[in-house]
Amino acid sequence: MSQQARRSPRRTEALSRERIVEAAVGMLDAAGEGGLTFRALTERLATGPGAIYWHVANKGELLAAATDAVVAAALAAEPEGASPRDRIRALALGLFDAVDAHNWVAAQLSASSWQVTTPRIFEGVGRHVSAMGVPREQWFTVTSVVVQYILGAAAQNAANAQVLGPGADRGEFLAKVSTAWEELDPDDYSFTRTVAQQMREHDDRQQFLDGIDLVLAGITAVHPPAG
Amino acid sequence: MSQQARRSPRRTEALSRERIVEAAVGMLDAAGEGGLTFRALTERLATGPGAIYWHVANKGELLAAATDAVVAAALAAEPEGASPRDRIRALALGLFDAVDAHNWVAAQLSASSWQVTTPRIFEGVGRHVSAMGVPREQWFTVTSVVVQYILGAAAQNAANAQVLGPGADRGEFLAKVSTAWEELDPDDYSFTRTVAQQMREHDDRQQFLDGIDLVLAGITAVHPPAG
DNA sequence: ACTTCCTTGGAACGCCATTCCAGAGAGGCT
DNA sequence: AGCCTCTCTGGAATGGCGTTCCAAGGAAGT
C-alpha cells in the first residue's frame, strides 16, 4: 500500500502518514471531534484528498492512529514510584491527564482502538497488577477491572469537559449543575439532591485518584498479598 | 415548541416524539450507530423531515432521548436483593445487559447525556451506597467511582461487541484476539502474552460481576461499616 | 363559512467522506 | 541520453448526510 522511504527532498516537506496524524491531532485538539475533516486537513497540509488517502485508508483509521499517538505519548514516561500501587497510580494519572488534554480521545477509546491502543494500556497496568501479589489466574480479570475503571472515569470526565467548551469557567459550570441537581424532584432524586453540594466542591483529578485507591484497596481486600 | 395533545385520529397514527424515539431505538438496534439517518427515519415513519424536526430539535437530541429511553427501561425494574450490595449488583447487571443489548448506547453515555440520563443512574447507585454505611461526606466520591466503573466496563464490552458484528461467533472472535495477543512482541507485551489464554476463556458478564465485587470490597475496606 | 394555527412532507442547500483519474517527478534500465 | 515504471499527488466528481424552508393540509374556535 504505502511506505515512502528513500526519496530526495522537495520544495515542501514530503507528505507522510506521520505528518498527517500529527496534523489531525492538532486539529482535533483545536476544534474537537467535529474539527477534523478531510477538507480542512487538505487545506492545512496544502494538498488534495487523494494524497491523504494514499497514506491513510479512511477517517476511522486516521482517528485510531491519532488516538494511539496520544496514548503512546502518555504511556512513554516510565511511571515513577517505589511500589506497584504507586506506579499504577502514576500511570493512571498520566492517562487521565492525557485524555483531559485531548478530550476527543475518550470517544475513540470506547470504539475502534481495541486492536492497538488498548493492549498498550492493558500491558502497562497488568505488569504492576502482577507485581501486587494478585494470584496468577486472576491477572486478566483484575487488570481488566483497573483498565475499565481508568477508561470509564477518563471518558466521563472528558464528556463533562466537552459540554463545557474550551474557554468556559469550571467553577461556574459546577455551580450551575449543582443548582440543577438541587432543583430535581425530591421524590425521584433524594440522593442526588443531598450530594449536590459535594459535587459543587469536588476536584476531578483528586476524585479520580480516590477512585484508583478504592479499586486498589479492593484488590488487596480480595487478594491479600500474603495469600 | 411542540406537544400535540387532543386531536382526533387520522388515517395513520399521529406522529409524536414518543413514536419517533421508539422508531429510532429500533433502527439503532437493527443497524447500529450508522443505521439511524433522518432519511431512513422518514421512510419508516412514512413522513418528511420537517415533520420530525417539529418534534425533535436535531439528531443529537434524538440520540439522547433514545439513550434515555433504554436506560430508563433498564432502571425501571426495582433491583431485588436483601443487602445494599446485592441491590447494587442487580442494578449494575441490569445496566450492563441493557448496554449489551443496545450497544450504540455506550458511545452516548460518554457524550451528551449528562443532562438527564447520568443523574438517573447516579441516583440509583447512590441510594444503595449511602445504605452501605459509607460516611456521608464520601457519598459523592464513592458513588461516582461505582458509576464510572459500571459505565466504563459496559462501554468497553459494547465496543468489543461492535467490532464483532451481529452474527459472528464469539468464541471464534476470542480465539482470534487471543492468538493475536500471543504473537505480540515478547519484549513489549510480556504480560499481555501470559494472560492471552485467560482472555480466551473469560466470560464478559461474570468478569463484570467480579469487577463490581472488587469495587464493593474496596468500599468496605476504605470505609468499614462499623466506622 | 371563515380564520387561525398546529402540523405535515417535499424540495433544496451545503457539507462531508470517499473515489477516480490524469499526470508529475524520481530512479533504474538500456 | 532517452525511456519506462512506479510511487505519489491534487483536482474534479459522486452520493449520502443533517438541516432548513416553505407551501399547503386540516382540525378548533368563532
Automatic annotation (TrEMBL), chains A, B:
HTH tetR-type domain sequence ranges: 14-74
Pfam families found in the cross-reference section: TetR_C_1 (PF02909), TetR_N (PF00440)
Coiled coil: none
Domain of life, per lineage: Bacteria
InterPro entries: Homeodomain-like_sf, HTH-type_TetR-like_transc_reg, HTH_TetR, Repressor_TetR_C, Tet_transcr_reg_TetR-rel_C_sf
DNA-binding region(s), residue ranges: 37-56
Gene3D superfamilies the UniProt entry points to: Homeodomain-like (1.10.10.60), Tetracycline Repressor, domain 2 (1.10.357.10)
Listed PROSITE patterns: HTH_TETR_2 (PS50977)
SUPFAM superfamilies, A to Z: Homeodomain-like, Tetracyclin repressor-like, C-terminal domain
Keyword terms of this UniProt record: DNA-binding, Transcription, Transcription regulation
PANTHER family, A to Z: HTH-TYPE TRANSCRIPTIONAL REGULATOR RUTR, TRANSCRIPTIONAL REGULATORY PROTEIN
Name of this chain's protein: TetR/AcrR family transcriptional regulator C-terminal domain-containing protein
